[in-house]
Design goal:
The chain has 480 residues and is α+β, with helices and mostly antiparallel strands. The protein has helices spanning 2-8, 13-68, 71-84, 107-123, 153-156, 193-196, 202-241, 255-300, 306-333, 344-357, 375-393, 434-439, 447-457, and strands spanning 90-94, 131-135, 141-143, 146-147, 169-177, 180-186, 340-343, 361-364, 370-373, 395-402, 406-413, 461-466, 472-479. The strands form four sheets. A five-stranded mixed sheet has the order 8-10-11-13-12. Strands 1-6-5-2 form a four-stranded antiparallel sheet, covered by helices on one side. Helix 2 (13-68) packs parallel to helix 4 (107-123), helix 7 (202-241) packs parallel to helix 8 and helix 8 packs antiparallel against helix 9 (306-333).
Length: 480
């Protein structure tokens, strides 16, 4: 479960800030809606109870009135009230109880019925009983076989809401005397009290949804405005790390970003000056040392002792090789060229053909892969690895493979391999193992360090490990 959540967690700062803000807004909105819904239900409950008592008192008065009338007068009074209109109750006389198709149960409606029933019993303690129900107008039956929609509009239009938005109708039936039932239908003081109690009504949800969408849109714009300078800073740092030219960062935006941009620009200038000074220093040292080395070589020729002369020449050759190696290290680590789309089959094919012409055995199968890199720098890095493999393993194999987010180039030799505790030190300058000195006494131990510097400048990795079947395996991982 935790691993699944980690995979869903965005990798970018923009995605994380957006997710946190959206989640915070949703949680806040839900909590606010829950509190508001509770308050709305409580207020609606109080209002509905008061309205129920009012309707019940009015119904009790009407029941007492009709019960006091002679049977023959009741029909006349009801007919006159229908023609006059404007009364609170729609009243009808039936010979038996009329079944009513009740609306779906709702807690507020049930509470209103309970309050009306209790109030009627208190006001009319000697009545035989009351039948209460809430029904919708289109399903309401007022007498045996007669529905509300069958009645003239003048009888109900001022009492009940049938069109255009029907409201629930409270039906009260009680037996005045055996065989005579009084049927009363009325609206609550707030006809739409049930929908007013619903915090999840579609119109309210639509309004809240629009408000939430507007707030989320503003949040996204703010997050993007905040993270855009950071993305520019990240791009500039990546370009500088790979040796590419990047324009100066704009000193606009928040005060914190302006300070960061200025600090980054100053750091980049200092590092660039350091690199240039280092290159000039190595070139100067190389140039200055070659002259005395040459003089010493000439003077060693004047020595009469041949053994001593040979030792002097070997030491001077080694010193000259170290100077050349140091200069070459600087040049190979600072190759000024623009990145381009490099077809690995073509680049590796040239290296393999050159090695085979020199009499070496190199295996390679084309894979049709490409990477974006500096062609010359990448060629030198792979060339260093291939040279090491051929020097120390006699035979080499190159394999390329595409992964999800990277392209790998593996160079394997068939030599004795490297002790596990010595793998980490192979990248250090001038480090050469005993086996390496025996196989190639002209090497300086700089090739692997140069190769790693080039690969890391491309945003990749160079991994050294012993192959399970023997030999050393050097794997380059470059971003796809």
């Amino acid at each position: 479960m935790l691993e699944r959540l980690k995979r869903l967690w965005p990798a970018s700062l923009l995605g994380r800030l957006t997710l946190v803000m959206v989640a915070g807004l949703l949680v806040t909105q839900l909590a606010a809606n829950a509190i508001w819904a509770g308050q709305l239900r409580a207020r609606s409950q109080v209002e509905a109870q008061s309205a129920a008592q009012y309707v019940a008192h009015s119904a009790a008065a009407a029941i007492r009135f009709y019960r006091s009338l002679p049977l023959s007068y009741r029909v006349l009074i009801i007919q006159q009230m229908r023609e006059m209109g404007g009364t609170r109750f729609f009243v009808n006389l039936n010979h038996e109880y009329v079944p009513v198709k009740e609306m779906a149960p709702q807690s507020l409606a049930d509470s209103v019925k309970a309050t009306v029933g209790a109030t009627l019993k208190r006001d009319l303690p000697h009545s035989p009983g009351f039948h209460l129900a809430f029904a919708w107008p289109e399903e309401l039956e007022v007498s045996e076989g007669v529905h509300l929609n069958d009645l003239p509009d003048a009888w109900v239009q001022h009492i009940l809401l049938v069109q255009p938005a029907p409201a629930p109708i409270l039906v009260i039936q009680t037996e005045l005397e055996p065989g005579n039932w009084l049927y009363m239908a009325a609206l609550m003081p707030n006809p739409y009290f049930l929908s007013a109690n619903d915090p999840w009504a579609w119109d309210r949800l639509a309004l809240q949804g629009l408000s939430l969408a507007a707030v989320l849109l503003l949040c996204l714009l703010v997050v993007r405005w905040i993270t855009r300078p950071l993305a520019a800073l990240s791009d500039a740092a990546g370009a500088f790390g790979q040796g590419e030219h990047a324009p100066p960062l704009p000193e606009t935006g928040s005060r914190e970003f302006i300070n960061t941009a200025r600090a980054f620009s100053a750091m980049r200038e200092r590092i660039q000056r350091y690199i240039e000074d280092r290159e000039r220093l190595f070139i100067s040292i190389s140039h200055d040392l070659r002259t005395p080395i040459t003089r010493l070589k000439l003077r060693s020729e004047l020595l009469d002792d041949e053994a001593l002369r040979n030792e002097f020449e070997e030491d001077l050759d080694e010193l000259d090789m170290m100077v050349k190696g140091a200069l070459q290290c600087v040049k190979d680590s600072d190759i000024h060229e623009n990145p381009a789309e490099v077809k690995l089959d073509a680049l590796l094919g040239r290296l393999v053909r050159s090695a085979r012409l020199a009499g070496h055995e190199v295996g390679y199968e084309e894979a049709g892969l490409s990477v974006r890199a500096k062609p010359l720098a990448l060629k030198r890095a792979i060339g260093n690895l291939l040279d090491n493999a051929l020097y120390y393993g006699k035979r080499a194999e190159i394999r390329t493979r595409a992964e999800t987010d990277a392209v790998t180039i593996a160079v394997r030799d068939h030599g004795p391999g490297v002790p596990e505790d010595a793998l980490a030190s192979l990248f250090d300058p001038y480090v050469r193992l005993e086996h390496g000195r025996e196989q190639n006494d002209n090497g300086m131990g700089l090739g692997l360090g140069i190769a790693r510097g080039v690969i890391e400048a491309h945003g990749g990795q160079l991994i050294l490990e012993n192959h399970p079947e023997g030999g050393l395996n050097a794997t380059i991982r470059l971003p796809a």
